[in-house]
Amino acid sequence: AVERARAAQPGWLAAGAAARSAALTRAAEAVEAHAEELAALVVREVGKPLAEARGEVARTAAIWRYYAQAPYAPAGELHEPAAGQGLLMTRRRPYGVAGLITPWNFPLAIPVWKAAPALATGNTVVLKPAPEATACALRLAELAGLPEGVLTVVPGAAEEGAALVDAVDVVSFTGSTGVGRAVIAAASGRGVPVQAEMGGLNAALVLPDADIEQAAAHLAAAIAGYAGQKCTATSRVIAVGDALGPLREALAKALAAAAPADPADPATVCGPVINEAALDRLTGALDSAVAAGARVVAGAGRAERAGWYFGPTLLEDVPAGHPLLTEEFFGPLAVLSGAATLDEAITLANGTRHTLATSVHSRDLDTALAAADRLDAGMIRVNAPSSGVDFHLPFSGAKAASYGSREQGQAALDFFTAGRTITLLPAGTPR
Given strand 87-94, what is the order of strands in its sheet? Predict the structure, then answer.
């Protein structure tokens, strides 16, 4: 697959900006034309609730359209020489073949937010999706209708992913921390540019002056939406001062309204988790925390219905050092903690190596902005769920949550291209 992509890359680049722009626009149109089919496929393959699946399809088309304009963007700068006649230029050029390794939780949007900027800048793409999302990736590439070798899907698991990293010219990965570190080591060992997004243990800070009902609604959406299977989902809730009691009550009520249900129902917020292993992992974490002294504020864990359903669950009094406070469990299981002051809350929020997204809830803009300056997360959202992402802005975490360049927006176009500096002097100019 990489050999075919490498053979196709010069022609794809030489086709020019207009051809690449038109191809990405056609891909967007194809997604829109098959929107309901794609949404139903996402529901069936990865259990995403229908309303969210439709939203992801719409976002996927929007991402194709956004990057369809990128081929026309400036590819460098022009500078005056330090002395004498001539021109100095910088120019950004594609690496060649981009290898993409993507997760199952956003089986359309994440492959496209990686592939679209890579393709727009003249690279060809080989995509290795998560095994759980193979059908979505294959249908996405089929609908894109790009020339042979320009966008290829390679189904598989660890072996295929490792082979891809060993063969391509630039690597973009989203997935677990353990696999991400292996990808980083392999790619950087070859001297190949690599970016890796590896999830987060995300906190939400709720101040006493916040609109508690609104904050609880936002937190419930970020905990329970798609069964918490988002790298930006909220897993730690930190209530400051007097906010703890009212927030506990409001959040318990909001989570109770998000009981797990059939993902094909448009009203469902929390569907099943991805597989039995995920259900067992969440159940084990809940049982371990309760055995260590934690108290269940809302929810009951494993749902009493057929399938891999885990109800949105909120715990309090989880002892320090418990895995729920140090590791990402990727499910609708969150911990509520109290902090006497905002300083203490910020210390708690920053007390992990996996800080991707943090939300702050307050009516005081000055306080919220001051908190944002001190939080370590790559994305900070004020009076909004932690789980929202704007596809035209840079996306990345802090510390161990991410490695390398940011994704999305101009940052993605920069990542998939290498800079060159060119000196142009008139013929016969003395050196």
Answer: 76-79, 87-94, 417-424
Q: Which of 197, 316, 328, 407 is catalytic?
A: 197
E strand intervals along 283-429: 295-298, 313-316, 333-339, 354-355, 357-361, 379-382, 398-399, 402-403, 417-424
Contact 165, 191 (CB under 8 A): no
231 is catalytic: yes
pLDDT tens by residue, 378-406: 999 999 999 988 889 988 888 888 999 99
pTM over 0.90: yes
Mark whether 407 is an active-site residue.
no
Considering the candidates 45, 52, 136, 231, report the single residue annotated as catalytic: 231
| Measured distance CA(28)–CA(251) in Å, rounded | 38
Q: Which domains does the chain have, with CATH numbers?
A: 2-198+401-424 (3.40.605.10), 202-382 (3.40.309.10)
pLDDT tens figures, 226-242:
999 999 999 999 999 99
What token pair was written down for 238?
Answer: 């930190």
User: Quick check: helix, strand or coil at residue 205?
Assistant: strand
